[in-house]
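Email to the structure team, subject: TFIID subunit TAF5 NTD2 domain-containing protein model.

Hi all, the expression group asked for a predicted structure before they design truncation constructs. Nothing fancy, just the tokens so they can compare against earlier work. One-line instruction: predict TFIID subunit TAF5 NTD2 domain-containing protein, return tokens.
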Amino acid sequence: MHFSSPTSSSPQNPISNPTNSLSTNNVLLLPSNTTSKMSFIIPNNNTNNNNNSSQQQQQQQIISTPTSGLTTSINSNGINSISNVSLSSGQTTQQRLSFPQRTTSQSQQIPQEEFAKILRVLQENNMTESVEIFKKEYQSLFNKTTSSFSEPYFTALDGYISYVQEQPDTSRHEFSQLIYPLFVHMYLDLVEKDHAQEAQDFFKNYVQNTNLQATVFAAHKDDLFRIKSLVTKELIAQSEYVKSFRHNGRYWIKLCNASLELLDQFLIKQQKYPLLTKIVQAYFQLEINDGSARNAETQRLLSGGRLGEIKTEDNTNRMYYGLLRDHDLTRILQHKAILSSSTGADNEDGVGDDQPSTSKNRKKLKKDFFNQRQSKASLKVDPNAPQLTRIPIPELREHERMDLINTFQEDYSRMLKITPDNLPSCCYYTLLNGYLEINCLEVSEDSTLLAVGCKNSSIYVYSLNRRKLITMKLPSELERLDKSNEHIYEQMMTNDDSKDNTNQNNDSDILYNQRLLCGHTGPIYGLSMSREKWFLLSCSEDYTIRLWSLLTWSCLITFRGHTQPVFDVQFGPFGHYFASCSLDKTARLWCIEHAQTLRIYTDGCNDIETLCFHPNSNYIATSSSDRILKIWDLLESKEGQQMKPIRQMSGHKLNVCILKFSKDGRYLISAGYDRQIMIWDCSNGSLVTCLLGHSDAIFSMDLSRDGSILCTGSADFSIRIWNFGQLIKDKDDGKLDTLQRVTPSAKYELVTYRTKRTSTTLIHFTRRNLLLGFGVFIPPNDSTTKATKT
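Reply from the structure team: attached below.
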């Protein structure tokens, strides 16, 4: 575990007395500006443009000295003018301010450090034109070179920032999308051309600008820390970030038609900054967005991806997000109604020892229900649901069908209906003495087992219902069992419950309530239990995935294929398949019956950090180090074709920690270090809304059994419950504010549960909608109060 990175502080005004660096006795004549000529073509844009010459306008430049409140106006034609100065007392005076005359005496020159201070003040106030004029005059008067090689880079970026500031408020945010990628490419270009010191000055000059910090760089703080460390050509060549940023595709920007025409005029017709046009032509791709310009808040939410926004064409493939009929909740409930109507209330327990005919009929009815041919009316299913044969999924075995029916009879029939007036109870488990030692937690589907993965490569399994952990009988005892008995699976296990209850508190019996699994040679990063609690998957830093038997408490097989540490592993909803993701930039699909990989999904230059299975087991969702969410189809691609994601979604500003599909499979919910809960529509990859409320990273998330309640756990020592069902209903009814995309937390947040000093690592709803929380206690004497996930 590590702690969140500190944010950089705002720069302070370095000038204490501006009169020491500026003289007020002389008049300075400024030369007229010259315009460089060039031409270039933006990809995917019309280039039918005439070379129209434009007359040069006289622009008034303002030099501001905040400490004294003095403002002097200098015309571009070289004539000083007198301007009004607003003082703190509210009075208005007039005063003349000018630069010193040209002189060859070294003592009359402005010192280099003073020159840098003045430049910084002008740049912090976005006075780009004044910066350009001041640099030129400093060079001409004192024969000083300010950064001979980096000068075009400063001039070009300052000129574009000034152009953005001149745009109206309704479209200014669209033009500002280009500032960050232009800044990065210019910095990398300076370093690659062996101008490291000038590159560092270039970096500090813009990153320390408070206005850019609050707007342009706010969505890229994590990447700026990486960029700052790239100070040599060798580091750039080895950097995975640079490979992802420069060689994994063009930076994608969406503009409305009006903004694109203005940008085309600025870069082509005016031809003032050839360096800008060269970078845009080499690394950018501009897409026309239908309609008018998007509002600033929507653009802010969708920004943050390493390569800008997502191409529209990347989300056009069809996705079958519906559920499979054989595993649908409604069909099981319908089966329950058939059973109850055919057997009556007296036989509801299903024992039937004294009535063998009834028990036989019940067993036959259960079997026939799953195998019967459905009528035409019942065959009418969701058109968005995939066919049962699209992905090979084994049919449910008899004991699995019986377990499903018993589960719905015993638990789902007593499930709590959660409403704003009937909120769920929360049972919280705090793990002591595990701070900085526990990496991951996993709870079984029936909420009876808890698995803990530790940094010392060990796995602990605990019983949560005060029952001892069962073990399979010895082979000699298994041979004597009647294999035709329908309760054969229960008879295969040892039964130690016959012991006297007085021995329950003995230390020897406590050992049966927990198990230790050893085999990995590195820290455990991910755990996943199968639905029937027979198997446990674990992934580790040792590049391997292990399948453990929770019946014999031993390792059955080790899956090898990843070439770097494995970050996450998860069983599919039906237990037959499982998926893993790794630092080797791949996600892999496996089957418990084969030791080899079935599918390999490659994410270019980015590590894949977390994943999630779709409820119909036809898709998996992944999140990589570039903060882009991708949904992959498990269907085998045609021969020779590369596996490509069918959905891509960008909007998170920091790494994503947890992914979760909604119960109906249509929506994907993501959360992570940026404290945003983003809800995506899988039908088209669009953002539904963003929920804000947590004040620290979000590590855990779960939906209630009926899918109407969303619960999130964070490192801010709180658990928040959201009315997810009402949010989706408002979205379908058109009542959700989809323009702003940000939903106030007070509108859908139902309640907040707080812990004392426990960061919630895992959240789980039981079959009866009881909320379980799990977390590691953070000692109060620790120097840092909040820990974050590894």
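The mean pLDDT is 76. The CA atoms of residues 590 and 597 lie 5 Å apart. Ping us if the truncation boundaries need rechecking.
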